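=== Structure Prediction Worksheet ===
Name of assembly: unnamed complex
Input type: mixed (protein and possibly other molecules)
Chain count: four
Listed entries:
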Amino acid sequence: MSKKTMVLGVAALLSASIALTACGSRTAETSAATTKTAKIAVIAPLTGDLSVMGLGIKNSVDLAIKQANDAKAIPGWTLALDAQDDTANPDVGANAATKVAADKSVVAVVGTLNSGVAQSVQPILNTGNIAMVSPANTNPSLTIGADPANPKRTYPNYFRVCTTDAVQGPFAAQYVYNTLKLTKVAVVNDKKPYGQGLAEAFAKEFTKLGGTVVDNATVNKDDKDFSTVISVMKSKSPELVYFGTEFQLAGPMSSQMKAAGLNVPLMGGDGIYDDKFIALAGAKAEGDLATSVGAPIESLASGKSFLEAYKAAGYKDGYSAYGAYAYDAANAIIAALKVSLPNSADAAAARPGTITALANVSFDGVTGKVGFDKYGDATAKVLTVYTVASGKWVAKATDTAK
Amino acid sequence: MSTAVLHPETDGHAVGREVMLRADKVTMKFGGLTAVDSVDMTVHNGEIVGLIGPNGAGKTTFFNCLTGMYLPTSGQVTFNGSVLPPKPREVVKAGMARTFQNIRLFPNMTALENVMVGRYCRTSSGAFTSIIHGPKYRAEEIATRERAAELLDFVGLGGEGGHLARNMPYGNQRRLEIARALATDPKLLLLDEPTAGMNPQETKDAEELIFRIRDTGLAIVVIEHDMKFIFNLCDRVLCLVRGKVLIEGTAGEVQSDPRVIEAYIGSPKTKENPDA
Amino acid sequence: MTASATTRQRAYNVERIVGLVGGLIFAVSAFFPWAYGHEALDDMAYFGSPSPLQWFAVVMALALINCLAASLLEPTLNNSTGFLKLLGRISKRFGWIRGARALAIGMLAYAVLAILAVALELNGLVNLEMGAWVALVGAGIAFGSSMMLPTGRAPFLERIPSYPVLEIATIALLLMGMLFASAYALSQEDGGTFLMVLVFIGALAGFAIGSGFGSWVATAGRRHRTVLVSSAFLVAFLFPFTQNGSDANMSIATQVLIFAATAVGLNIVVGLAGLLDLGYIAFLGAGAFTAAVLSESAFATINWHPPFIVVMLLSGCISATLGLIIGSPTLRVSGDYLAIVTLAFGEIFRITMNNLDGSSGPNLVHGSSGIPAIPNLNFFGFDFGQSHVVAGIELGRFANYFFLMLVIMSIIILVFTRLNHSRIGRGWVAIREDERAAEAMGVNVFGLKLLAFAGGAFLAGFAGAVKAHVDVSVVPDQYVFLESAFLLAAIVLGGMGTVMGVLLGATLLKLVPEKLRFMSDYRMLIFGLLMVVMMRFRPEGIIPNQRRALEFHVDDEELVEDVEERLPYEFVEFEEVPA
Amino acid sequence: MTFLDPLINGLSLGSLYALIAVGYTVVYGIVQLINFAHGEIFMVGAFGALSTWIVLGQASANLSWWMLPLMLVGGMVVGVTVAVLMERFAYRPLRHAPRLAPLITAIGISVFLQEFVRLFYGAIPGFPDAKAAVVFPQIEFFTGPAIEFGGAVIQRATFFTLGALAVSWAFLWFFVNKTKIGRAMLATSQDPDTARLMGIDVNRIITIAFAVGAALAAIAGTAHGLRYGNIDFKMGFLAGLKAFTAAVLGGIGNINGAVVGGLVLGVVESLATVYVPGQFGGAAWKDVWAFVLLIIVLVFRPQGIMGAKVVDRA
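=== Predicted Assembly ===
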């Protein structure tokens, strides 16, 4: 009896289901494509410790793509985002790059965050003729090769919109020596490619200008306790501490310095130019300094509109330290695609053309003028010094690096 | 079974009453406790020596000193005229093998494999020949397996080779441990309470097995609590009390000595610390 | 027959029939649409035209129906005569109910997964079509009824007489099936589809094991070991040809092989010698750094570029030397202490590599930037960086390295299995089981432990040398503690002391995160939980060495009986010596 | 800079190690288990203290000194709860399994707890996202300007850390030697089987050992937050490893040993940073020296500085 009811029920449900289905047959699938799709891939850490920055990059690229699609920047083509997670790990990055290279609709890549991952990704994308524009790699050797005295471009597909350590470090040194008139500094780095490169470039320029580096120290990136390093520095009474690192270490370093009675400003590169630095450094961060690439975002019209658009898009995560660069990188690619895509049959065919076109890109981006030199480095050498005042980063001086 | 089973490379009985093992004033201290106090002992070829004494008398500790598991605090052990290094492996190589008071087989190996492990020190094929299955590996592997099977047969475990050691009856585990010790081609066998926990029939079988081993020319030192067993078996008996030799003599002499009886009955029960 | 017995008999028959109906419903549901949109999974929006995933559902349902029908008909068959009786007697050897259970569990997981995937991918349960719900109901009925059935006897299929041709053919067919299954699973871009394919394969495997077919295959595999091994390698060799010239999966496959090769090396230390090494990744790193420093990269710091064979051997030797150094404390420390010592060594390696940058130490590896731009290998004019067309199929860069790793892998497997079955392997077992007894029986405990460390490290160094070229750059941060933990996890998950287990573990650990990007943020969380759960319920891993399994299950008498009954491969065969 | 500066820095760091190391040692003394996940209890404890402040003090930005005891209690409650759950559900079923099993379980728990905090801490309404370092409230009295004392600079947080260690040590001494439970713990550590026969509930004693260790780790977590101004989900790994080193250095199983070992390790690290000359000096190599010290101690004096309860660990 009950079984009968059940069977009836099932039958009723099934027939209802048939009636409701918008069904066709599997073979009859024809949708005349009016626009072709080209993808811009993002390779960045979307999960893990560095996901804050990776997601900022992804969202900013997404924003650039959406704006381009809305403006119908490239007639006949729709752009799409293909976000790949590299978990800040070179192996995973290489897999992501291989996957991207195998996808015929990808024309260019924005990435990576880490120079270490870039080293694995560069050659794979180069083999696939895919342009790669990094918003954040600062290791000079990625563009000019192993020997700085004898620069040689290793991978022609590689570009970056950020400046390298070789530009930013000396800029900071000049500011400290010439403008602040300080002659004794202590230099610290965190043994990561970014921080170490920056600190070394700073120290070299500072000594060249005539200043004295009273102490040259390193810390480990997992360290929490800098007290002993601070004690050593304090005994040599520097007038400023230059710390090549990111905000995760610089914030605590600043607060510990002041707690230990070393009341001099801490200075760093664009890695510490983040609100999180001020939060971690606490109330005593007043007067700490950072350099960052480009003029202050708010001072440029393009920068302001980026900030507004980002806010309006309602992303869950902030644009973070490299969002603006990523936005510029994506726009550089889009500018190149305007040249390369219209003449190509499909996305894959446009790959080599995109690389050529990228080399000639030039426009006013969020972080300043965007363009590349013959090695793929950003031509923009405008940098800004910021200082912490009343719990906020305030622009102090904008200048062109020499 | 013939001597050839146990001593493939030598022929016939050992001759005369040559001294095989000599322990000379062996003393073992653990912190403040003197577990073995200047014990002298000699074992001759083809002899069965018994070691008795109440719990905590230091018998097992003494064994451990003999077999290189402990480095004696003072005194020395000579075996066939040379001083033994305090390394069990070297001691085994020199020709002394032992069993344990609380059976220490390799529980998850089969009986056959257990005995094959005993052949380890008498074989020498290394990693390379094992990997390429070189001629040496093949020859040794076959020889090892055959010899292990023979020894299993000898101790009466002929058809049991495929059983896991941990799944064997207690008596068989004791036999297996003896077979494993024999696989090292010893000249002297040290048995630590070989009949502990056995019923009378099993004890009798063990006794018979030990005689058969002795008959192949091996010298044997045996620790036991079962007096009847010891006095049946041994040519000479040492009685240890509180780390010291109380008396040494033939089975008859020791048996009738009143001090031995007193030591057993009068001694306080302390927990023996076998091989910590 | 008593009344109660009759009722019980009848009751079970009812459950069988209900289960059959459940299977039928499940099969039929495949012909109805499961999802409203075309984007979900592999497009299940059609009526009367199942997608591949839906066809898989049909296959599972048919297998389930077969199981239940056979068990239902069996008494009748046995009571009849002639051919039918023969069928009945064959049927009796199968564990139909166990197989049915595995299938039913698989079906339920399949349906639930499909519903979740559709709901996630199309945003909301609204997008599910009736077919999916029907499938869930069918699977639920099948699951419920099969759980209520008694398990019945264990299958004893392996005891039927052997037909060599049949066995060899089955092995070959099975492996070919695996090849296509893996190629198919890998070609799934969609995480949900990939998972469902995995569940499908898992359910079929469960069915095979439960019904007794699995142990028949295992026995056949043991009888024809050479066939099994060589066809397995053949299949692995053919894998790149199934990829249609795409390198995307080959990149993952190559990394899986490198990872697995290292893990097999570690398995010598952990699985065979029973020592715990938590710094093992340092050996892979040492190999990679050696190869990088000696490569023709512009960043290499040593101006000597020997041929790759020499580099590889050198990498192996340097790793082995490190292994000896790390292994030397084993003379004095053991157990947990050793684990800590190895962990500390691993950290020392990483920090040292970071410091060899010219400022905190001699400039050997450029510190944390490592050595990039390592050129591709070139064997006698064969450039590993170039694509080659073989039999009309393009084989890309990673396919080249895949073949190279396959060769290295076979060497490593040979070393592993042969050592395991030698005097040395027995020595390791003895040390694992009772170190003091082993020492007292003349086993060179310290020497064997060192051999395990050095041997394992040598193999890892080998793999590292190739890894340097595959990855193009070598950076110290690739060789952190977490990677050592992953290696260990591959062994724990896959199986201690077996090659197959490690291969499975390595594949799962490397492949699943690649395919399931949508949950990659939870990857580590799941990893941690998995370790805890495995240790609690199956510490010996999925495909364990039987002896290892025995060691982990001190009180499991059933397992002992099982092992003794048919001594597994890792034991020395025992044949009775005629008296 | 006087010699005192690095010494005080080292003692301050070392007292953190010591507080964590006691947890390793207490548990090890009783069950011979190296609870690898103990470092994560330190981390969880710190987050517990932070949560307490967020709930009670954040709205009013309350940084008065009396917030600290509340935070300590909060941290301890969270730490102890996690530790007890961990013991009950992960370790207890494995008590008779081969040693590899609990060790791998510990690694699993460690990864799980880190990821759990990273992923879900920020999901609680009102709590900050824990994917990167989180700012820890700077309780006024304990984080004010450093105190100059005879040429040396002593941070206020150092006083708190050292004071917490001293108080905890005294409490532990009293607890182990003077209370019934403490004596039961001693008995269990000597011989669990006999202890059981004597009517001691061994499971309960083990749970208490985990709880005591977790409470001290939570104190250390709070002290860490005060001293460094921030906490993050990864802080337990390295701290746990160092603390374990400290426990082994002092002699694992020996409470006094853990304290001495922690202080020694902290001072060694600090002095190595300052006094090891040339390229191999400085903070870049200090961890290497710490680990080398561990290996040397394990190889040549496995029982540690103060002597371990169990020497031969197979």
